[in-house]
Structure prediction request, 342 residues.
Amino acid sequence: MRIVIGDDSPSKRPREEPTKVIAAPASAKPAVTLPDSGVYRNPGNGRRCILVCGGIGDNVWLIQKLVNAKEEFNWFLPNDSPRRGSQIFELLGKPTVLTVDYGSFDTGKPLSFNVQAHRSRWCDISFRDFYLQCNNHLLGRRIEEFLPDLPTSFEIEWKTSSCEQALAQRLFPASGPRTIGLYASSYPSSKSWDFWKVPEWVWLATKVRRELGEETRFVVMGAAYDLDLGRELFDALAALKCDVIPMFGLPLGVIAETLKRLDYFFAFPSGLPILATTVKCPTLMFYPKHLASLMETWASPEAIRDGSYHGMLFCTPEEAVLRAFEVYHLPERPCRVPSPSA
Prediction:
């Protein structure tokens, strides 16, 4: 089967301009650093501009809160490569997303100058334009406590196209076999975080196949830059005569529709397993030790209780399969049927 590769090519980062600090009297709230006009271009439509981190997961968390602000925004992402983060806003669409663009700042700006560190409630953020991120908050605190005056939407209705829906329906009909998603990331990421390479993922897949049946289907997915490890994993599973579908560099809408149809998803820490929970895809996400405090702060309490989301520190493939079967009882579950709207 041919592996389809999308266009994830990085672009040159422009020179970053300075930011400005809004001073405050000693008796007032702490000073807030707001974006300088040189790092983004306000579209002049009268709506506020929010400058955010670049990852898909980073912004799913923000979306889960700001869809309830009942306001239109202009969103700006950092110019860090691979510039893939805009897809999540395009998938959300109006009314929350009026425009989305890239600025000439890097991810360090929202991390360092997060307005929510100074104004904890949404109703207190009156600035026209500001930096915002949820990442630091979630290291030990629940997402409901971030902008606590806004509700948290754990499920999101992503605006996928009819073509994306049709493709997923064709690949994964409701009458098909159990389908297990695998996101292994790339060799640079797995090496940097000292996580599994191809042999460990193959062990996990073959163990799951033995338990669920030879007809079990696997989907190996990722961005185009995940293709180094992903291609090897696909080839290894295909050589074992597994039913396996490769999905690399495809539009995020296709991935969202695929996630709706998976019976389970084993994933390296990234935006994809975070996206998966918003469409109720049963997910096990692996974490390095330095992100242990993030494991149970962002998924819905219901998903944590019923095992349809589970966070787990880096482990062996044997431990991962055992845990998935213990907390979610995967062998006992019927094949997952997409909702009528899928």
Q: What stands out?
A: Residues 1-28 have pLDDT under 50 and may be disordered. The chain is about 30% helix and 15% strand. Residues 100 and 229 are 31 Å apart (CA to CA).
